[in-house]
Amino acid sequence: MKRKDVVGREFDRFAIDEDEHVGHFSTAGYGATPKNVFDEPAQESIEQQVLALPLITVAEVIRPDSGKIDD
Length: 71
Description:
The protein is α+β, with helices and mostly antiparallel strands. The protein has a domain at 3-51. It is 23% helix and 14% strand. The protein has helices at 3-6, 40-51; strands at residues 12-16, 22-26. It has a two-stranded antiparallel sheet. A hairpin with a 5-residue loop joins strand 1 and strand 2 (22-26). The longest helix is centred in the middle third of the chain and has 12 residues, at 40-51. The two termini are 20 Å apart.
């Protein structure tokens, strides 16, 4: 996958900061994206790992549907 392949389309990526917090970024196909994000198998693996994490929050879902990573 190359940068030109995601311009104008929904694109999710993940990052980990120095305190090991995981961030989920939804670009909607525009904006700066680090080059290493275009390792598609790695990003898909990270997405599956994030989706498999246990729920550890008491946050209230305010959407009528359950939501998805690709929303």
